[in-house]
Amino acid sequence: MAELRENEQKTLLALEKLGGSGSIDRIIEVSGLAHAAVMRAALSLKTGKLAKIREQTRTTIALSKEGKHHARKGLPERRAIEEATRLGGEATFEEIIEKADLEDEFVTIASGWMRRKGWATIEKGMLKTLKEPETGTDEKLLKLLDKKGPQLVENLSEELKNAVSTLKSRRLVGTKKKILRELELTDAGWELVKRGIEVVEEISQLTPELVMTGRWRKVKLRRFNVTAPGPAVYPGKIHPLQQIIEEVKEAFLEMGFTEIRGSIVETAFWNFDALFQPQDHPAREMMDTFYLAQPKEGGLPKKDVVKTVAKTHENGWTTGSRGWEYVWSREEAKRLILRTHTTAVTIRYLAEHKEPPIKVFSVDRIYRNERVDYQHLAELHQIEGIIMDKDVTLRDLIGTLKEFYRKLGLKKVKFWPSYFPYTEPSAQSVVYLPELKTWMELCGMGMFRPEVLEPFGIKYPVLAWGGGLERLALVRLGIDDIRALYKNDLGWIRRTPLCL
Ligand code: PHE
After folding, report:
1. b/e 180-201 (16+ beta carbons within 10 angstroms → b)
2. For residue range 264-311, what is the model confidence (pLDDT) as tens digits?
3. What is the mean pLDDT of the chain?
4. Average pLDDT over residues 462-483
5. Distance 465 CA to ligand 1 centre (A)
6. Atom 4, ligand 1: which residue's CA is nearest?
7. Which of 86, 189, 354, 402 is most buried (CB neighbours < 10 A)?
8. pLDDT at res. 201
């Protein structure tokens, strides 16, 4: 072995004092070294064949809360069978339970285990005892743990060891593993120690003083071992989903858009009616939209705007359309909901800002009444952008979207016709994912209809697009369960790169 370092020398000396072998804890005690220093020394002594590392697993077993309860009162099946015997070996199961004063949650457990242990049969509610119910090893182990506290599994008798897995599966005990490491001198190690080790102080930090006085020539400088395993460091970082949100916002900002935000609780008026979505539209149903229980209603905007929106729904007003041809209800429009899309944010903004040019965006939370599974969440994010200007056309929208996607690293984009109640023409944009060799729908888009713009007195064309952010996140993060984005699984967050 090459020249020994200070830590290694001290570890060898400690081993000598300990008679040739000792646990890492003992070596720390005797040598005065830190845990990490001993571990590092142990590894290099092992490589140099001066010492051997032995590992032993130690498993501690302890009673759970329920386990303690049963240890004191007896297992449920024991309490029941004793009562049955007292009642003459035959009685209704119900009576036994009652007399044994068994807690509700243990009733089925008691009947199940009485059968499994072959103590009794239960047929049509009648219990018959079969044999003398001997004390089982499970009961013995429970008693022991209750009397003596947590034990090492390795020290239990062979008989009691057999009961560990049953009690574990019944959740009456828990086990914890710990690896104990012991270091032992090899013959070569002994020889070296016997020749005598003189600990030479090592310098790990070169100071100005050492350089100026020239003393650096005499001291022993510690060599770096660049291959030694170091402790893993997990620096704080921005959550992967938040990183993607910020990236999307940056793409908008670079393209000259301004961020706007709106309220999560919104009236149906802004979420649906203002967007020419009829009041019997399926998306408004309870199963798709969250309605607030308290308060139930919110305020509507100025009278004339409500009137023009109402007329547009009923007969098209002056928009040139026939509308949806039904009687529009103020009450329905006042209902408070959790917004189901961020288009509610942009239409609200347009109602207040009618002069071109306008380029605004929102990346924010929306809510849908979905059953949560690997593909669906009830709370998620949408990306939304609008452009209002004189003479903008669908071609501008397509060009803008291509550029927007390009900034997000999505180079191949296709557009095909689609439908939304508030846009005409409407399109769906799909992007190509080279890693998965598939196309994915990302944002719906279109030009707001006159039925949306005219009631608010907006005179210029408006380009709009919007879609889910989580879909994009799944692809970027290479995961297929959308719930992972919100689970805050530390392991996953740590494995995700610092910069996506
Ligand atoms: N709001 C639509 C959705 O939730 C997307 C969209 C936005 C479509 C703007 C057209 C224009 O899917």
Report:
1. eebbebbeebbebbeeeeeeee
2. 999 999 999 999 999 999 989 988 999 999 999 999 999 999 999 999
3. 94
4. 94
5. 6
6. 341
7. 189
8. 76
The count of other CB atoms within 10 Å of the CB of residue 82 is 15
Q: Is the CB of 404 under 6 A from ligand 1?
A: no
Atom nearest to 346 CA in ligand 1: 9
Secondary structure E strands in 351-497: 358-367, 379-388, 413-417, 423-433, 438-448, 462-468
- From the CA of 382, give the closest atom in ligand 1: 4
The CA 295 to ligand 1 mean position distance, Å, reads 27
Ligand 1 centroid vs 302 CA: distance in angstroms?
Answer: 26
Which pTM value belongs to this model? 0.62
124: phi > 0 → left, psi -120 to 50 → alpha, else beta; which? left
Q: In the numeric block, which tokens belong to residue 47?
A: 């490589």
Q: Encoding tokens for residue 170? A: 């019944």
Share of the chain above pLDDT 90, in %: 85
Ligand 1 neighbour 423 (Cβ under 6 A): yes
How far is Cα of residue 470 from the mean position of the Cα atoms in its chain?
A: 14
- From CA 92, how far away is CA 127, in angstroms rounded? 6
pLDDT per position as a tens digit, 224-267: 778 877 888 888 899 999 999 999 999 999 999 999 999 999 99
H or E stretch including 128? strand 126-129
Nearest ligand 1 atom to the CA of 444 is 8
Q: How far is the CA of 356 from the centre of ligand 1 (A)?
A: 21
DSSP of 446-486: EEE-HHHHGGGT--S-EEEEEEESHHHHHHHHT-S-TTHHH
- CB of 397 within 6 A of ligand 1: the answer is no
Question: Which ligand 1 atom is at minimum distance from the Cα of 445?
Answer: 10
